[in-house]
Design a protein that fits this description.
Structural class of chain A: alpha+beta
Strand content of chain B: under 5%
Largest sheet of chain A: 7 strands, mixed
Number of helices of chain B: 10
Number of domains of chain B: 2
Strand order of the largest sheet of chain A: 2-1-12-11-10-7-8
CATH class of one domain in chain A: Mainly Beta
Helix content of chain B: over 70%
Radius of gyration of chain B: 28 Å
CATH topology of one domain in chain A: Tumour Suppressor Smad4
Shape of chain A: rod-shaped
Radius of gyration of chain A: 58 Å
Strand content of chain A: 5-15%
Structural class of chain B: mainly alpha
Largest sheet of chain B: none
Number of strands of chain A: 18
Number of strands of chain B: 0
Shape of chain B: elongated
Distance between the termini of chain B: 57 Å
CATH architecture of one domain in chain A: Sandwich
Oligomer: heterodimer
Chain lengths: 583, 282
């Protein structure tokens, strides 16, 4: 047995060193070193293996050998065995073993050092890198703030301002503008209306001067002919629109345009217009459904003097229209018409299967669908109203619309017939004698010729009276006989069919093609072309009411009325003139 | 008084005084919005739009002032609780004022950007509010009167205990104890902090492995092994609490990573918005 002293040094918490020593009796054979209970030299740290190493004594040498597949270190280099007795420090797991100078009371003195981890070190190991908060792992809030600040400053302010200055220098030469010049479109407050979209990259077109509101000049640069709303010379409110063009026409409101539709835009003035503007002939109006005057069509009361009267539909003194045309609707369409047009309608292939005409036989919307196309003789009347004047010449028709020609045709026709008679008279005489040959030198007598021509002239006059007076022209037209006409011949009064009874309103027949004509127009009961067959406001109100009135079609003023009237003087000049006066 | 009660009290400060003001402001804004009609419809350019915009901008400046004011400790005639109460309620009412100011017109422009940034700031603030109402209580419950430092020390102590328990056991178990000691982390990365999870947790792995090994041991050894597993189980419980503590603390901070930087972005965008409106006026 070898009496062995082991001096242990454990360096622990905060560098605290703990010394201890024990004296062991080691066997002569190999002595185990390790954590296991069977080892003579026991190691108390978990990091040491159960059977870590063993001491082997060979003559004067003390050798440490690794056990159980593990390794030891000598001078911090891994090895299987190391000579302890030459002063080498041998590492066994966390322990360091050295041989100390001999002491008299023991055979061998060994030093065993262990360095245990400091609590602070253990704690630090728990939190890798000391990263326990977001601040330890993320970029700081301050840096992030500066980054976002810089990005927003650049995109939202610096680049747009730069774009403005770049574009300023390139006036009139936008084709060569650098991409930078369009970077101010991030300032666009909303999508431009479709009609202005071509200006999307050209903010300066409407905003030429920084920090100055858009002026009317920018608008009238293009919209030079846009008319006034009323004649500025007649009314004291020379300009109803507060704030100029942009007062009503806000842009950047989306693709549907900058034309406002709010009823209040009109009713703000028109609800009390008579009070505001005593000179006006317009009646007050504030809402189509609840406060709109009855329609007042412009009716031609005297085509000779072109007198037009505006009167409310249904008023007791509502005038008859005088178009110089006679056209009773009830004789053409509707139940009564069966008795009058049936013969014609059934005879003509195009109306097959019908008993009367219908509206669309004559009235068709014009291309575009706003108004109705004009009715004309050739397409709509001539099928039935054939201008055949003599039963001896079926198919020969008089020219329509040309009274002088009518007179000439009738004249020519009957004179020609008389000449034929004169010419045929000797032949008749010869026939009576049984000879077909005329004797040489034999002619019609002057008396016969005179009588025959006089008869022809009587026929012409009769036919003109019949044609113009009643049978043909006079059926539809107002005609004047020679004794009442300026020319001394038969005349047809010029026709004035009103195309638009309400010129200040816009009405599209095309938008109403789901309705039957008779729902609005009481034509079947009309026996006089003097009737103005317009529906009254009640009829419209069965579908259309003001913009905020329930289930009906919301109909603000702009649905039927326009604001800028191009028949009036152009707004641009008017404004400039006013600003000139003001200055 | 616990944290939850204290936080509730800032919401109810002076009998919900600022909630009432915020309601008045919101109802007034909605009333004006519904009560007036404009030719081109509602947008920021009408008189009402300008009014709401001005109120909104002033509110934003005032709400930001809170961020500066709250850092000034010391005497003064002000109450942090009162300011916070106002900050919360008036900040929330800004959603209504700001939205009505836009007239519900949004597009790819800086004006809408300012609006979106404002909403992000308010939303993050709302999340922060929820976090501040809920999280401190969770933290208290989770901590069980132990500070994070105390938890860490307990973990180290348990490591010592585990080491002692493993002294009696084979190297295999000693290795597990070392695995638990060296492979157990709390925090260390954004992901681990915010999820409070560590898929490669040394302690969890050691426990699982110890249970596995102990099945094939003789009863005496097996009992020692299960004792070790019990000790490591106790450690894991504290480790998980410590992780949750970091997570909860991070939650108290996370919303500010959006709230503060986006507020700064909002301010400059708001300035640009105002300049742009007057730059291209009309």
């Amino acid at each position: 047995m070898r009496r062995t002293r082991i001096r242990s040094t454990i360096t622990g918490q905060g560098g605290r060193i703990q010394h201890s020593e024990t004296v062991l009796e080691l066997p002569h054979g190999p002595a185990g070193i390790g954590r296991g209970a069977g080892n003579p030299i026991r190691l108390g740290d978990i990091r040491a293996r159960e059977e870590a190493a063993r001491l082997v004594f060979r003559e004067n040498d003390v050798i440490v050998e690794a056990c159980g597949g593990g390794t030891i270190t000598a001078h911090d280099v891994e090895t299987d065995r190391a000579l302890l007795s030459d002063g080498t420090t041998v590492g066994i797991g966390p322990y360091r073993l050295t041989m100390l100078p001999a002491e008299s009371d023991v055979d061998l003195v060994l030093g065993l050092e262990l360095e245990t981890a400091d609590t602070a070190e253990l704690l630090a190991r728990l939190v890798p890198g000391g990263k326990s908060t977001l601040g330890d792992t993320l970029v700081s809030k301050r840096s992030l703030s500066w980054l976002l600040f810089a990005v927003c400053l650049l995109v939202a302010l610096v680049l747009p301002v730069a774009a403005y200055w770049v574009a300023q220098g390139h006036e009139g030469d936008r084709g060569s503008l650098p991409r930078l010049a369009t970077l101010d479109n991030v300032w666009e407050t909303g999508e431009l209306s479709d009609s202005h979209k071509f200006l999307a990259d050209n903010c300066e077109a409407c905003h030429p001067v920084a920090f100055q509101p858009t002026r009317d000049e920018e608008c009238t640069a293009c919209h030079a002919t846009t008319g006034h709303h009323f004649e500025p010379a007649r009314f004291s409110i020379a300009d109803a629109a507060e704030g100029g063009c942009v007062g009503c026409h806000g842009e950047h409101q989306g693709p549907n345009g900058s034309v406002p539709v709010q009823q209040s835009l009109c009713s703000d003035c028109h609800a009390t217009l008579a009070e505001r503007e005593p000179a006006t002939v317009l009646l007050d109006v504030s809402d189509f459904g609840s406060d709109h005057p009855q329609f007042r069509p412009s009716v031609m009361t005297d085509p000779a003097t072109r007198t037009i009267v505006r009167a409310s539909l249904g008023a007791p003194d509502f005038p008859a229209e005088r178009s110089n045309l006679k056209f009773p609707h009830n004789l053409h369409i509707g139940p009564e018409a069966k008795n009058t047009v049936n013969d014609f309608v059934t005879r003509l292939g195009r109306y097959e299967g019908r008993e009367a005409l219908q509206c669309s036989d004559c009235h068709r919307p014009e291309p575009g669908g706003a108004y109705m196309a004009k009715v004309n003789m050739r397409d709509h009347c001539a099928d039935c109203h054939r201008l055949e004047f003599d039963s001896d010449a079926p198919g020969r028709v008089l020219p329509h619309g040309l009274p002088d020609e009518v007179i000439a045709v009738i004249n020519d026709y009957y004179i020609a017939k008389a000449l034929q008679r004169i010419e045929s008279t000797p032949q008749v005489q010869a026939a009576e004698r049984g000879s077909t040959r005329r004797r040489a030198g034999q002619t019609t007598s002057a008396e016969v010729r005179r009588d025959t021509l006089a008869e022809a002239r009587r026929q012409v006059d009769q036919m003109l009276d019949g044609t113009f007076g009643g049978r043909l022209c006079g059926v539809c037209h107002i005609t004047y006989p020679p004794e009442r006409s300026a020319s001394g011949e038969w005349e047809v009064a010029p026709v004035h069919v009103t195309e638009v009874w309400e010129p200040k309103a816009r009405f599209r027949h095309g938008s109403h093609d789901t309705m039957a004509c008779a729902e609005c127009h009481a034509a079947e009961a009309s026996d006089n072309s003097g009737d103005v067959l317009l529906p009254d406001i009640t009829s419209c109100r069965s579908c259309h009411l003001g913009e905020n009135e329930g289930a009906a079609i919301p109909s603000s003023c702009g649905m039927c009325h326009i604001y800028h009237d191009d028949r009036l003087s152009p707004l641009a000049r008017g404004r400039m003139a006013q600003s000139g006066e003001g200055g | 008084m616990n944290r939850a009660v204290r936080h509730e009290s800032f919401l109810a400060w002076r009998n919900f005084r600022h909630l009432k003001w915020a309601c008045v402001l919101s109802i007034l804004s909605v009333g004006l919005y519904l009560g007036f009609d404009f030719p081109a419809g509602h947008n920021g350019g009408t008189w009402l739009g300008y009014t709401l915009g001005t109120i909104g901008a002033l509110l934003i400046v005032w709400l930001m002032w809170f961020g500066i004011r709250k850092r000034r400790y010391g005497p003064g005639n002000w109450s942090l609780k009162g300011w916070l109460s106002a900050h919360v309620y008036l900040g929330l009412s800004l959603v209504i004022v700001g939205t009505l100011h836009t007239g519900f017109q949004l597009g790819w422009n800086i004006h809408s950007l300012a609006y979106i940034l404002m909403l992000i700031v308010i939303a993050s603030g709302a999340i922060g509010l929820l976090v501040y109402v809920r999280v401190p209580q969770l933290m208290t419950e989770n901590r069980r009167s132990q500070s994070l430092d105390e938890m860490a020390r307990a973990i180290v102590e348990i490591d010592g205990e585990a080491a002692k328990a493993a002294l009696q056991l084979s190297d295999e178990f000693a290795e597990l104890v070392r695995m638990s000691q060296n492979g157990t982390h709390i925090g260390g990365s954004f992901r681990r902090i915010i999820t409070a999870r560590d898929s490669g947790c040394g302690t969890a792995r050691a426990i699982a492995r110890a249970r596995e090994i102990s099945r094939n041991l003789p009863p005496v050894e097996a009992q020692k092994a299960s004792e070790l597993a019990r000790i490591l189980g106790g450690k894991l419980e504290i480790v998980q609490r410590a992780r949750r503590d970091l997570r909860l603390k991070a939650l108290l901070d996370l919303w500010l990573y959006i709230h503060v930087p986006v507020t700064i972005a909002l301010v400059i965008t708001l300035i640009a918005h105002i300049i742009a409106v007057y730059f291209y006026w009309g």
